[in-house]
């Protein structure tokens, strides 16, 4: 995730979320053992030192991309383009050019409609600084591994609608990858009903996973409240628009911003900042595995929910054609 800026006003905020349930009230994660094992292995590999921090345009980014391509082929996801790769050119904040590459795949829906659900996570991170590797286990190997887990479950039990899986590059360098995707989409934007964005799922130090988007798209609220009631982690709704505006609003904090700017509804799942956020200590060993497996199970359930309700969401969002 790009840097979040927190401005404290000193005024109390009216928080928009469901009351927290105790850990004893929450069911256990429902992922089967093989998915759980692969989930953790994907995070471990993507955040290992030999990925050199996965900076966009770097050798580490290329290594991560090669690994993800092998995983997508093993799962059985089909490429959207002739290959999975969508290359793009960009410049750093200092004006230096670099080449970025998204990976984009698809699982075709079992139904006859042409509406599309886009689920994405950025695979890049910060690279190295002063000889230290920023491994980005939570940010965002955790989201990428959960995206692969969603693909695994959809391959076993096909979605009703086409699902596009976007592994975005250069989120940390200004969200260049997702912008390149939306500027040259493989299907018309009118067919993209909503975006599910996964960015930082692994380190809910208070045991909390958050979902943003309902203040902008109120028709998602009841659906996400229902998801929160049965989620294996404490899921809270907020960090979007009021009362977060000017304090800790995540609306522009990750790749979902670019869908929102194009009036495509989003639901963004993530955790609040922790002491290792954007530091070289964001390592695999710091991820609490039980929480992370529960968070992954929650976003898998969310993907199922949005796929099931995609036609109704399109109607509510005024995206009917």
TrEMBL record:
Keyword set, alphabetical order: Signal
InterPro entries: M28_fam, Peptidase_M28
GO molecular function per UniProt: metalloexopeptidase activity
Signal peptide annotation: 1-23
Sequence ranges assigned to domain Peptidase M28 in this UniProt record: 102-301
SUPFAM superfamilies, per the entry: Zn-dependent exopeptidases (SSF53187)
Coiled-coil features, chain-numbered ranges: none
GO biological process: proteolysis
Name listed for the protein in its UniProt record: Peptidase M28 domain-containing protein
